Amino acid sequence: RCDxxxxxxxxxxxxxxLALVEHTINVTLRTARPKRRDNLASGDADIPGSxxxxxxxxxxxxxxxxxxxxxIARATNDFDPYVRTEALEALKSIDPTGSESRSQAIAxxxxxxxxxxxxxxxxxxxxxxxxxxxxxxxxxxxxxxPEVAPAAYDALKRLxx
Length: 161
Description:
Distance between the termini: 43 Å
Radius of gyration: 16 Å
Oligomer: single chain
């Protein structure tokens, strides 16, 4: 249902989506937990919360409303990689040029994520933002994390390095 609200593009859906998160998800607790590398195991009690949180974040990204950047930023620090992935995808839509300095900072921070999928998205995002301050972290990735090195090399190439 969250996806349908996002696809409809009606910004009146923002407040109910934010209220859904506020009333069903303890974002502070989720953010305080260490970021997981792996997906939650089948049957994990946190899965329903992650599904709701990720769906709301995805819908907010579809609604493309900058006023929701704070919510998206917090979601990039969730313990569940599924939620973090959706948050970076939403950030790509909400701030496609990286005109908000915090968007650039979020993308650079995600280069350190334990989940390879999140790091690959972050590589795309820093390149999309033309964020040359990400060059050193990208170079570090090419040397320290071979599983994401192709994405880091691609980002460096797009940045002209």
